[in-house]
Predict the structure of Lipase.
Amino acid sequence: MDPRLDLTKSSSLITYLPQFGAIKTVFGVDLLELMLMASKVAYENAAVVEYAVTKRWKMNFVGFYDCWNKFTKTYGTQAYIFTNTAKDASMIVVSFRGTAFWAAKDYVTDVDFSFLSMGKMGKVHIGLLKALGLQDEKDYVKGWPKDYTGDADKIPVYYVVREQLRTLIQTHPNAKIIFTGHSMGAALSSIYPALLSLHEETDILDKTTGILNNGRLRPGDETFGNYMVDLLKGKYCLRVTYRYDIVVRVPFDNPFFQFKHFGKCIYYRSWYHGEVVMQEPNRNYFDLRYFPNMYYTQFKDFFTSLLILPIKEGKEYRETVPSLIYRAIGFAIPGVPCHSPRDYLNAIKLGKVTISDEEIV
């Protein structure tokens, strides 16, 4: 739906993230835009991902991984890793693929709203844990052995990525690790550091500078959120939400479901305006008070993207036919088109937000 691969070489977003120091930009490219682009590209196949990293971004491709999910019995979890340079890198990025539009079993993962208690960590979305590599859905200790001893050709993504990170932090001792993703991939990136903590992977955690993702579904309960905020204290824990994205508002945050978001959020009310919030409006989607505005913004985004944006901002903002079809779904279910990586990327490229150190960390 969005063929764009190039990064903006000059962006006012650079000033939004002052506490990142030397890694806030890479060859003049804004870090926030890079993370959203990396999460969008994760939906592509391995060849396209490698092409984007090496030829368009001029960075170092480490690997693309199709990983086993024991419960769906498929290689259903994907991630890739890249560094900003091949030698003495300052940044290691791990990007998880989100819910693929064509993959029915990804939706099974998303709507498995049950919890698994992880002890002092709290309760975590069990479908996401299964996608990362859970081995036992009844007991988290048995479910997360420190070392995987199963079939060599069926290694889950948690263990594959961890092994790569162990090697990379030795090869690049000055590098910082960032986890990112969109949709389900955003939730996987938000849970991953907790599993490193469970196994006391302090070398990797010490090199982790935080998580930065977009369009995230809620990964766990309030206790889990508090655990993650404490684990990432002094680092950053930031997610981006566009308008009335329906996925961000599930599983529900109410006394029955008890799912919560954690960390600060850059919330975009339009492609041109964002603000820092702790909680998006219309928390659980079905609040009737918001439906008039949801339909209004649906009409506005559809016709603006079709008729105005390509003229005002340039041909890179021209909509593809699949994108317009996807946008049209919003006339029936407003909030679905807001989940598109295209809109997230538009907001980051076009929007204006001022964020202080105190607001993010």
About this structure: Residues 291-313 form the longest helix (23 residues).
